[in-house]
Specification:
This is Developmentally regulated GTP binding protein 2. Keywords: GTP-binding, Nucleotide-binding. Pfam families: MMR_HSR1, MMR_HSR1_Xtn. GO terms for molecular function: GTP binding; GTPase activity. Residues 63-288 form the OBG-type G domain. By secondary structure, the protein is an alpha/beta fold. It has 4 domains: 3-42, no CATH class; 63-172 and 238-286, Rossmann fold, CATH 3.40.50.300; 177-235; 289-343, Roll (Ubiquitin-like (UB roll)), CATH 3.10.20.30. The protein has helices spanning 3-16, 24-42, 75-82, 130-138, 154-165, 200-209, 225-233, 253-260, 276-287, 315-318; strands spanning 63-69, 100-106, 109-115, 142-148, 168-170, 177-181, 187-191, 215-219, 237-239, 241-246, 265-267, 289-295, 306-310, 322-323, 339-343. A 6-stranded mixed beta sheet has the order 2-3-1-4-10-11, sandwiched between helices. It has a 4-stranded mixed beta sheet with strand order 13-12-15-14. Helix 1 (3-16) runs antiparallel to helix 2 (24-42) and helix 6 (200-209) crosses helix 7 (225-233). It is globular, with a radius of gyration of 25 Å. It binds guanosine-5'-triphosphate, potassium ion and magnesium ion. Guanosine-5'-triphosphate binds at residues 69, 71-77, 89-91, 93-96, 117-118, 246-247, 249-250, 269-271.
């Protein structure tokens, strides 16, 4: 039996045990066991239980959003509010121990929302279930970093550091540098823009540090040494992140106003259901999805069944053999949000 199953067995037994003087000792033991198993789950260990039990959730829907945050910031409360899935929420830390998927239905798209255990400082080194949580976050299209508005800035910078340390780059694009290792010929260095942070010499030094002596390097933008290193190392994940400050019912209006003005940030209260619609709008923007509706000749468009595309996708991505009415466009025409497309069979 896995640890999660043991936990669930004990929880069931606690639930069916009547609370009275005679069962006091038994209940106490069960709770101690429960605490022990929870602690085991949260310990970094090489045992099977820390491998990823309960984290292998199938991707489904049109996009995936992962909820990352310290314990008890309100991640599960949020999932239960936004989806038809209920995830247990409680005032104690590490209530959630696995990955709990739910679905947000918005503008005809199904967005998979993943509730995850809380993570703490040291998560990247395997503290708590940090490794598993971060591994799931890497698979998401957007990360929601949920923060406790009453705790100021600490949580945000600590978690950014954790994610940074495992190669996750938040709200940054892939540096526009062409880099190709070669068999010989030394390092050929070029740039199409004026560089203020890197020079040919520095690039050479960095490459030598990585034991690379032959390569083609072309800077197409004014990148920093760190960005260049990211390109050499590879394996970086560039993802949009929305900072969501929850529990604004607990702070002053001035503080709410200050947090709301920060870049990539939204302030909400799950408890009082404040600003959740605006959060969805922002999330939609960050996901950069476009809905296309299909219609058959002589019939009205079917607005209940959307085809979801990445922003900037063209007609070709919808499918071939298509013609457009009233406007006819080529296959490379970029689809706009809520376009209607008529499919004509040849
Ligand atoms: N005041 C206030 N409390 C909230 C709000 N949202 C959630 N809470 C409370 O915060 C506590 C923690 O909520 P959870 O949803 O369990 O938090 P979590 O982030 O899932 O926690 P872990 O699973 O332990 O990491 C619960 O007691 C919630 O009722 C809010 O907007 N305002
Ligand atoms: K909690
Ligand atoms: Mg939770």
């Amino acid at each position: 039996m896995g640890i999660l199953e043991k936990i669930s067995e004990i929880e069931k037994e606690i639930a069916r045990t009547q609370k009275n003087k005679a069962t006091e000792y038994h209940l106490g033991l069960l709770k101690a066991k429960l605490a022990k198993y929870r602690a085991q789950l949260l310990e970094p260990s090489k045992s099977a239980s820390s491998k990823g039990e309960g984290f292998d959730v199938m991707k489904s829907g049109d996009a995936r959003v992962a909820l990352i945050g310290f314990p008890s910031v309100g991640k599960s409360t949020f999932l239960s509010l936004m989806t038809s899935t209920a995830s247990e929420a409680a005032s104690y830390e590490f209530t959630t121990l696995t990955c709990i998927p739910g679905v947000i239905e918005y503008k005809g798209a199904n967005i998979q929302l993943l509730d995850l255990p809380g993570i703490i400082e040291g998560a990247a080194q395997g503290k708590g279930r940090g490794r598993q949580v971060i591994a799931v976050a890497r698979t998401a299209d957007v990360v929601i970093m949920m923060l406790d508005a009453t705790k100021g800035e600490v949580q945000r910078s600590l978690l950014e550091k954790e994610l940074e340390s495992v190669g996750i780059r938040l709200n940054k694009h892939k540096p526009n540098i062409y880099f190709k290792p070669r068999k010989g010929g030394g390092v050929s260095f070029n740039s199409t823009v004026t560089l203020t942070q890197c020079s040919e010499k520095l690039v050479q030094l960095i490459l030598h540090e990585y034991k690379i002596f032959n390569a083609e390097v072309l800077f197409r933008e004014d990148c920093s040494p760190d960005e260049f290193i990211d390109v050499i190392v590879g394996n970086r994940v560039y993802m949009p992140c929305l900072y969501v400050y929850n529990k604004i019912d607990q702070i002053s209006m001035e503080e709410v106003d200050r947090l709301a003005r920060k870049p990539n940030s939204v302030v909400i209260s799950c408890g009082m259901k404040l600003n959740l619609d605006y959060l969805l709008e922002m999330l939609w923007e960050y996901l950069a999805l476009t809905c296309i509706y299909t219609k058959k000749r002589g019939q009205r468009p079917d607005f209940t069944d959307a085809i979801i595309l990445r922003k900037g996708a063209s007609v070709e991505h919808v499918g071939t053999s298509t013609k457009y009415s009233p406007q006819r466009v080529g296959l490379t025409h970029t689809m706009e949000h809520e376009d209607v497309i008529q499919i004509v069979k040849k």
